[in-house]
Amino acid sequence: MPRVTRLLADIGPLRESAAFRRLWIGSTLSSVGGALTWFAVPLQVYDLTHSPFAVGAIGIAQMVPTLAVGLAGGAIADAVDRRKLVLVTSSCLAAVSAGLAAQAFAGPGLLWLLYALVAVQSALSAVNAPARQSLVPGLLPPGKLAAGLALNRLSFQVMLTVGPALAGAITATSALGLRACYLIDAISFAGALYGVATSPARPPQPGAARPSLRSVLEGARFIGRNRVLAGAFIADLNATIFALPLALFPAINAERFGGDPRTLGLFTTAIGVGGLVSAALSGPIRHVTRQGRAMLCTVAIWGAAFAGFAVAPSLWLTLLLLAIAGAADTFTVVFRGAVVQAVTDEQFRGRVTAADFVVGAGGGQLGNVEAGALGSLTSPVISALSGGLITVVGTLVIGLALPAFTRYRAVPAGGGQQAPAVPESAGAVA
Questions:
Q1: How many CB atoms lie within 10 A of CB 166?
Q2: Rounded distance, CA 61 to CA 41, Å?
Q3: Are residues 245 and 376 in contact, defined by beta-carbon separation less than 8 angstroms?
Q4: What is the distance between the terminal CA atoms of the chain, rounded to a whole angstrom?
Q5: Is the separation of the CB atoms in 247 and 371 below 8 Å?
Q6: How many CA atoms lie within 13 A of 369 on its CB side?
Q7: 157-212 per-position pLDDT tens digit
Q8: I need a surface site. Which of 34, 90, 216, 347 has the fewest CB within 10 A?
């Protein structure tokens, strides 16, 4: 039993930090509501238009404001009290959710209004999410940071797996239909607001730069000078741009499994289940100090899993490889987040965390475009296979080109201040 316990996610941050516990619970409750809205918006758009293109256009309404506002939001987070900023943006997000509920109850059937609300929601989230994430290092000691981020990921994976089914059940059984999803989302923000309101203040550093293009560029230069940060971002882009073939799922499902929509649904579910299992069994993460090298390993596993998915002859092997990819993704996100938060100077934390958010959001969108374009020029199998193999090779190139990233050492659980990077031969492999 003790061995099994050591495999489970470390809940020490929830026990030891009341502020982190309140923030985590509030964020988890709010994510429940967010999952319901993510389900309801595409369904409402399709009910209004019966057009797959109109549903796909939701992605454009989300991506454009995210990329346009994300980096500027980081500059704002470094210039103001981050706790107050998150309270303001969370309140605005609650108002947007109330607006979504209002338009659904009013029933005007205005497609442009739905797109506009989604765009505003994405712009606010591009400021809110990084600022909220940057609160965590102030609530936990360095040795517990990775465990805290793993708990955040566990919450996300639970909702990624359970949320759509819960939303479908509510829509099907409630007299309000999808309007109930919007309404619950608006109410759930009470939990998020409580968690943030009871956190300690996070005022800006003395002499913090005013939000401007110059401050955004200063943040970009800070990332470029820091080889550990650069390695984390490049490794993540390597994974998402080349080995995220979600756009190929329908074509591969049609070619290999007859286009059964139930099978197509299992593809995404398998990724979610793999991520959920790895998040629940994330206990060993607390002992990993070579987080840069560990991230390269998990990115390589991600790429290899998708390369295998491209040529897997049976359904069970296909789903197993997708689950492995999902498991690797969870560890990659945790390691990347831990590295980013640990090596970032406090005066740049908002801008760097915002860049992390933009990289995660934009890389996935670019990956779908790349996979779809290459799949159209060649074939879906060639696109998925080559992307996975390029990702594996890319991790080797990154490791050789950025040795500071592979040598980076984090503070172990129970440690004190951030440990400096050490030569590769000075310690064991992560």
A1: 16
A2: 12
A3: no
A4: 25
A5: yes
A6: 8
A7: 777 777 777 888 888 887 888 899 999 999 999 988 999 999 998 888 777 777 77
A8: 347
Tokens 């989230």: give the residue. 125
Closest CA to 390 of 311, 262, 299: 299
Domain count, the chain: 1
Over residues 95-131, the pLDDT tens digits come to 999 999 999 998 777 889 999 999 999 999 989 988 8
CATH code of 185's domain = 1.20.1250.20
d(CA 341, CA 139): 12
C-alpha to C-alpha distance for 117 and 100, rounded to whole angstroms:
7
Helix, strand, or coil (residue 122): helix
Which tokens hold the place of 358? Answer: 């933009």
* CA nearest neighbour of 136 among 147, 145, 127: 145
Which three-class secondary structure state does DSSP give residue 408?
A: coil
Encoded tokens for 306:
């998708």
* SS3 annotation, 252-311: HHHHHHCCCHHHHHHHHHHHHHHHHHHHHCCHHHHHCCCHHHHHHHHHHHHHHHHHHHHH
Helix/strand/coil for 138: helix
**Rounded Cα–Cα distance for residues 387 and 285 (Å):** 28
Measured in residues, the chain has a length of 430
